[in-house]
Amino acid sequence: MKAVAVIPGKKESVHLTELEKPTVSDIPEGRGVLVRVLKIGVDATDREINDALYGNAPPGYEFLVLGHECFGIVEEVGPNVRNIAPGDYVTCTVRRPGGSIYDQIGRSDITSEEVYFERGINLLHGFLTEYFVEDAEFVVKMPVGLKHLHVLAEPMSCAAKAVLQAYEAQKRLQVWEPRRAFVMGAGQIGLLSTLILRLRGLEVYTMARSPKPSLKAEIVEGMGATYISTQDKPLKEFAKELGKADLIIEATGSSAVAFETMEAIGHNGAVVWTSITGGQRMVEVPSDFLNLDWVLGNKLLLGSVNANRRHFEIGITDLALGEVTFPGVIEKILTNPVDGLDGYQEMMRLLVEEKDALKVFINVAED
Ligand code: BGC
Ligand code: ZN
Questions:
Q1: Domain membership flag for residue 317
Q2: Protein residue with its CA nearest to atom 7 in ligand 1
Q3: Are residues 167 and 57 located together in one domain of the fold?
């Protein structure tokens, strides 16, 4: 069967390769789930991997099959699989356990090991192929009524984790009632974080460079949040005018913006960084000011990556709630479909060149 792969460490090496079709019995103890791939989404991580900034091939392979945002239909299950059956629509978590205590309790998303295993990203092949088999533990059901949102389940799980982590960490304050949130970036994580925070009743300001009108702004406003172009009003100025935020989710992909958020968070506030920045950028920061302000304001900064099964389930529940609260808005994120695995070059082109693409995904097979 066909698969789309890269040679990690070699720039712009995306190509088509061949893999053997997996079988349910590849997974031990009768826990295998064989999935026919329907759609795979790609994001900035795939772009960085193809730019040789990130990612590693599985041991024994020169290539890495891409694809970590998956959506498919179950074709067959092993004898010990309970809650998943042929015909179910599913997605899959990305990270697989290593050896730390966090991995052992099902929290590989917060592994303490330097080496992590992620399908389609690091040391494990991804889903950008025709079939894959996986342990039922990592397969997550998508309700049939959400199948039109398909590949958004994975990015939604990362946004769900980011927000949840902030709320969990803020229990340190005993009575945290965030009112105003800034979301930096209106890519998929920014937009989905906007959705989650709006569903929790926060006043949300989502900021990105491009001026209005734009699809991003339309989606943000469709979710009852306010879109701010940082070209019109830089974050610092905006925060001075309106007041600082109680919660900031940073998802621009720019480490410079990540540091800027530190000046826009209010007392007792939390900043969550989610951008993956594989480059070498350096910025100067007002360190004395930040240090003093953060100490005096009891502020919290946390990094959040990946998501486990629970975050997928929370994310999927929020997608469902989002659908009934802001009907028809979420699917506008799914901007750029590409037909078939053979379209992999067009997929990369869109990812690199199409600045307005909110979500590039491949239609691998018909339902
Ligand atoms: C993926 C996450 C992953 C992260 C770091 C993101 O694009 O969605 O699942 O943990 O990259 O590799
Ligand atoms: Zn991703």
A1: no
A2: 45
A3: no
How remote is the CA of residue 274 from the centroid of ligand 1, in Å? 9
18 Cα to the center of ligand 1, angstroms: 25
Ligand 1 pocket: which of 50, 71, 94 to mutate (most atoms <8 Å of CB)? 94
Ligand 2 centroid – CA 79 distance (Å): 32
Cβ < 6 Å from ligand 1: which residues?
Answer: 43, 45, 68, 94-95, 118, 121, 154, 158, 276, 305-306
Which residue's CA is the nearest one to ligand 1's atom 3? Answer: 306
Whether 75 and 204 map to the same domain: the answer is no
Domain extent, residue 34, equals 2-141+335-363
HEC string of the chain? Answer: CEEEEECCCCCCCCEEEECCCCCHHHCHHHCEEEEEEEEEEECHHHHHHHCCCCCECCCCCCCEECCCEEEEEEEEECCCCCCCCCCCEEEECCEECCCCHHHHCCCHHHCCCCCCEEECCEEECCCCECEEEEEHHHEEECCHHHHHHHHHHHHHHHHHHHHHHHHHHHHHHCCCCCCEEEEECCCHHHHHHHHHHHHCCCEEEEEECCCCCCHHHHHHHHCCCEEEECCCCCHHHHHHHHCCEEEEEECCCCHHHHHHHHHCEEEEEEEEECCCCCCCCCCCCCHHHHHHHHHHCCCEEEECCCCCHHHHHHHHHHHHHHHHHCCCCHHHHCCEEEECHHHHHHHHHHHHHCCCCCCEEEECCCC
Give yes or no: residues 227 and 293 share one domain: yes
For 179-218, what is each residue's pLDDT tens digit?
999 999 999 999 999 999 999 999 999 999 999 999 999 9
User: Is 312 a member of any domain?
Assistant: no
pLDDT tens digit string along 298-312?
999 999 999 999 999
Domain count, the chain: 2
161 and 133 share a domain? Answer: no
